[in-house]
Amino acid sequence: MTLTLLLAWLIATSCMTGFSYLFSTILGENFKEPQLLTDLLGEIAGRKLSVWVGWVVHYLTGIMFLGMLIGLYSITGVEVSIVWGIVFGMVMGGIGILMWKVLYKVAQEDPPTNTRLFHLQLIIAHVFFGMAAIAIEKVCMPYLGSL
Description:
By secondary structure, the protein is an all-alpha fold.
């Protein structure tokens, strides 16, 4: 179980991040969460931060979102499936949007990117997160069991 959760966290967060980087490249916008987090947290801290700060915060947030995904399944009692991974991913995308809005409000900064596209990208990226986390659970649990 622990190994499955670790894999789900790393792979789901990486899938989400990969989508964000691809979407950024295609649209010529910066939707790269680790970079945006580094810049935003640097503004809040009043100094330039290493890009690794954004990466660490982004992946730690991934743990929180995986916990939310597990909680949503627990609360609703629905069967673990890709379809519900998509639905819960959309919910988590909405939560992600709210979190970014709070961060920008705290930093007293405007987002440096197209806000509507960024929000759309966040929802889609979290759908990828939800699908990847569920896929890992479905694929790995039979092989890894309670590891």
